[in-house]
Each structure stands twice: as C-alpha cells, then as structure tokens.
Amino acid sequence: MKNVILIGANGATMRVLTEQLKDNADVHLTLFLRDAKRIDISKINVPVTVFEGDATKQADLDNAIANQDIVVVGLGGALAHFVAPIQQAMNKNHVSRLIFILGLGIYDEVPGKFGEWNGSFSGMPDFKEAARLIENSGLNYTILRPAWMSDRPEINYETTVKGEPFHGTVITRASIADLHHSPDQ
Question: Per the database record, which ranges form the NAD(P)-binding domain (predicted)?
C-alpha cells in the first residue's frame, strides 16, 4: 500500500484526484488542507487521514509528510515559495517522490499566438521559478504542466516532455487526475 498525501486537498483538481483514488485499495490517502471541515471523507473507501495544516508552516509540512511515499502538490496562487519547505519536509522524512502541478508555458514550449498570450500571464515568472527549484531539488519529481483547466468530466489528454512542443489549450481536471491516479506514479 502506498501512502499518498495531497497537499491542497480541497482544490478543484485535488478533489477530482481524491474521487479517482477513493476506491483504490493500494492507497492510503492523507488529505492536507487548511480547514478540515471543508472536505467530506464519508464516501472515501480507502484508509484516509485528514491533516489540517498550513502549507506555509514548516512544522505542519514536516508532520504531514512523515511516513508518506508520494507527495502530490496542487496548490493555487504563487507556488515557488512552497517548493523549499516541501522539499525540506520530504528530505527530513526520507520521501523522494513528488508530483507538482504547475502550468503550461513554463519552458516556453507553447507555440504561436496562444503561447504568446499564455506567456503574458502574470504568474508565469513564479511558475518558472517553481519549476527550476523542483528540477534542482534532487527529488524524484514529475511536474504536471496542464493547459487551462475545465471542470468537464471527460478524460482525454496527451503528454509531452520538456523540450517537446505543447499541444492544445484546455484540459479537464479529470484528465489531470487520471494521469497520476496510479499509486505507482
């Protein structure tokens, strides 16, 4: 059984991931969020722990990441300042597997007018810095670079790796969750 922590568990994409993992007998979920009352675990059929904490507080991260196998980060807003504390907590707890959701364009891989428009997003420098920090962390990481997200339920996506041109402009949260709902990821 893999111990998987979802940091930012009440976010829209993380709620979809929780829904996809709720019956996976190979997973013990830890849901990390600021206000535990905001999440209903009654329909989760796997072992689940709710950790009420603040992702800006090192002690909360240290405690929540203890005994985890996989750390999945789906926070919102400026993200670069979360990388070092999460990395520190992972190192302290001997956890090496990180999946971090950022966004498309962090490698200037989106061609054409859409790429120009996307590159003008005010949060792009922060996302690029977060990617740089993750890449230099020494962790076994996957950076998810989803396109602009939709709440539609369909699952349909393709993957690219750093250095390949990006395809598409919109992806569903269900597709993002589907990509990494396997506990082996």
Answer: 8-179
Domain boundaries, the chain: 2-179
Q: What is the 3-state secondary structure (H, E, C) of the chain?
A: CEEEEEECCCCHHHHHHHHHHCCCCCEEEEEEECCHHHCCCCCCCCCEEEEECCCCCHHHHHHHHCCCCEEEECCCCCCHHHHHHHHHHHHHCCCCEEEEECCCCCCCCCCHHHHHHHHCCCCHHHHHHHHHHHHCCCCEEEEECCCEEECCCCCCCCCCCCCCCCCCCEEEHHHHHHHCCCCCC
Closest to 46 in 3D by CA, of 9, 8, 78, 1? 1
Q: What is the value of pTM for the model shown?
A: 0.87
CATH 3.40.50.720 matches 2-179: yes
Residue-wise pLDDT tens digits, 85-97: 999 999 999 999 9
